[in-house]
Amino acid sequence: MNLVLHPWQLMLMFLASRVNRQQQEVIEYLRTENAVLKAKFGTKRILLNNDQRRRLAVKGKTLGRKFLDEIGTLFTPDTILRWHRKLLAAKWDYSDRKKKQGRPRIRQVIVDLTLQFAKENPTWGCDRIQGELAKVGYQICDSTVANILKAHGIEPAPTRKRTGSWATFLKAH
Fold first, then answer.
1. Range of lowest pLDDT (8-22, 26-40, 48-62, 159-173)
2. Beta-carbon neighbour count of residue 57 at 10 Å?
3. At 2, is the secondary structure helix, strand, or coil?
4. Helix, strand, coil shares, percent, the chain, to 5
5. In this predicted structure, which of 28-32, 48-52, 169-173 has the lowest mean pLDDT?
6. Long-range Cβ contacts of 149-158 (<8 Å, 24+ apart)
7. CA-closest candidate to residue 155, choices 120, 129, 118, 127
8. What is the pTM (predicted TM-score) of this model?
9. How far apart are CA 165 and CA 171, in angstroms?
10. For a Cys-Cys bond, which of 57, 63, 95, 116 suits 84, CB 3.0-4.6 Å?
11. pLDDT, position 34
């Protein structure tokens, strides 16, 4: 069997070998760049965000453990494949569909207004503060007002300090 190569086949082989050589040079450059970065970090950990881990895990999974072991310089193949397993586990745990458990927090606006009312009007009790909040447009119960005051160290109305400045007295009346 006589193998005769046409000129276009020779040209194609030459072009393919040139592209392959360029790819090998790029890979060697990137390996050297990674080695320099690793030497710069020394023994310090390289901290990645979730998006960076995801990108490395997807690319690493396509390469496989054997090839990652040959070319991996910054992270071990076990680490990259563990990130991929966690990525898959997070995809199928349906956490995006789960409802949040528990009662929602009290908005900070309501807490600020409650504290302001209690400090400016020392004779007001929880019922009065709750009524004033309802007039402003915030519907909460008086026990919530009591919990807010208790959490911020403000005593109930009868034992709260009633003495104040004349300006506070005149503003209240």
1. 159-173
2. 21
3. coil
4. 65, 0, 35
5. 169-173
6. 149/114, 149/115, 149/118, 152/111, 152/115, 154/115, 154/118, 154/119, 156/125, 156/126, 157/122, 157/123, 157/124, 157/125, 157/126, 157/128, 158/125
7. 118
8. 0.45
9. 10
10. 57
11. 81
Is residue 159 helix, strand or coil?
Answer: helix
How far apart are the C-alpha atoms of 125 and 131, rounded to whole Å?
A: 10
pLDDT single digits (tens) 99-116? 778 888 899 999 999 999
Round to whole Å and give the CA distance between 25 and 146.
71
pLDDT for residue 163 is more than 70: no
Helix intervals (H) in 93-141: 108-120, 126-136
What average pLDDT does the chain have?
83
157 vs 120: CA distance, rounded Å: 12
